[in-house]
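I hope you will forgive my troubling you with a question about protein structure. I am sending you one protein, given as its amino acid sequence and as whole-number tokens for its backbone shapes. Thank you for your consideration; the sequence and its tokens are set out here:
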Amino acid sequence: MEKNPQVVALSEAIGRDPGAVKMKLENFKKFDPDYTVDGKKGLGNTGRLDGEIVLEFINNWGDLAWEAENARRKYSIKQDSEIIAGEFDIPEGKYKERMVKIRCGDRMFRNMLLAQYRRKCCITGLAIEDLLKASHIKPWAVSDDATEKVNPQNGLLLNPFFDLAFDKGYITIDLDYKVILSKEIKHTNESTRLYFEKYEGSYVDLPSNKLFYPGKRFIEYHNDHVFGKKPIKI
């Protein structure tokens, strides 16, 4: 591991031997559930601080990503043949904190949709959780922070292809929760049209709890401002 280019780059940046960096990474393994799940224990001389660091970040990837970028900037660490430092402006502290809140909220939003839509795409029924997207009906960028961005009524659980089609305005749902196709879809080539047409007019698979049904004000926004607004390119 000490010959790994990223380990070498890190060791050079912080003035430590690659072997020492390797040992620290090995220490972290002891607290990684993905590593220990099959009975592995990691090194036996790990310190309390190692465990605290892992526990701080293991379920908080937003903070971890932010701190990693700060470290790369501070130490000018090369990653994938690119020096991160100096290539972007660090936002002020207040904005940094807000970015963390957005990531946590987005994760909560996804988890709520996964539970309410029974971990299936509400249009196609695809049931591979890793391939499902928590789609916003009213786009995130124009949604209110407090009442709309993580409101499950502003969401649909979709597979990636339908998530993109919905996001780009090629499909929508009406106030009765039926799938509607844009004229761009209807005027494209036959194979594309036939693929979408089998879902046209079908009802989306609604959440388990009526309190989480797609909100009609969000549907109306999507229909008025997103649906059919971008021409398809063939």
The longest helix spans residues 93-116.
